[in-house]
């Protein structure tokens, strides 16, 4: 092995020694394979992304339901060039090689659609309940394997909430609460063993929880079995919410199965909330 020089990525994580250390940490992590990496990108780039983060109102996709309240978007052409610059970095062959070595997943790559890279944002009282991710990009026909989230929240305090929670598969134990601190990244393998969610954001009015996402895929191969996204109840959820969540998710999955049988490739149940 030799040192990898990946533009904007902290050389502490791309050196030969650093990569060996991260690989061991990733594969030994619980409840799922994951890493939390501070100072992930150049501080100058992180600060530029924060300063030019698109406003909450300008994001096109509004997801608001029983189990989530957040906004997202992927229209890079409307944003500051620093966002496209970061997308080029995480979509480069050098970064792919780094991710493949780190995770042990050969053939990892991302896409240029909404399920490739983009931004998430949530204002005061936003949240995302614990869930497992859909494991396929239906338009590209690829197997979703690894998530990368980069937080862009300067001076974010513990009392502002918005922690990323990592739960075990049985939804009995929450193993980690990750504060979305500025320039902190989390990389995690997304499968049945990685239920995750975002606690309620309690920041002051005018503040928001900001992140840049990239999802990585491989070709569909041996071991693949389609899994839809699914919200899961926390042990301390009220009985009424547990019942409503279970019922809603059952109806959603059955509806998608019915539409797929009719030849509809995919359906975004949040389309009604998208700005035209």
Question: In words, what does this structure look like?
Answer:
Helices cover 25% and strands 25% of the residues. By secondary structure, it is α+β, with helices and mostly antiparallel strands. It has one domain (11-273): Jelly Rolls (Sandwich). Strands 1, 2, 3, 4, 5, 6, 7, 8, 9, 10, 11, 12 and 13 form a 13-stranded antiparallel β-sheet that branches. 30% of the residues are buried.
Unreliable stretches (pLDDT < 50, length at least 5) are: 267-276
> Terminal Cα separation, in Å?
49 Å
Order of helices and strands: HHEHEEHHEEEEEEEEEEH
**Which structural class do you get from the secondary structure elements?**
alpha+beta
- Total number of domains: 1
**What characterizes the major β-sheet?**
13 strands, antiparallel
Please name the CATH topology: Jelly Rolls
The rounded Rg comes to 18 Å
Task: Write the CATH architecture name.
Answer: Sandwich
Could you tell me the number of beta strands? 13
Count every helix, treating DSSP H or I runs of 4 or more residues as helices. Answer: 6
- CATH homologous superfamily placement: q2cbj1_9rhob like domain
List the helices and strands and how they pair.
Elements: H1 11-14, H2 16-28, E1 34-37, H3 43-51, E2 61-65, E3 68-73, H4 81-90, H5 93-103, E4 117-122, E5 127-132, E6 136-137, E7 142-151, E8 164-167, E9 174-178, E10 185-189, E11 196-198, E12 209-219, E13 230-231, H6 239-261
Antiparallel strand pairs: 1-10, 2-3, 3-4, 3-5, 4-12, 5-11, 5-13, 6-7, 7-10, 7-12, 8-9, 8-11
Helix pairs in contact: 2-5
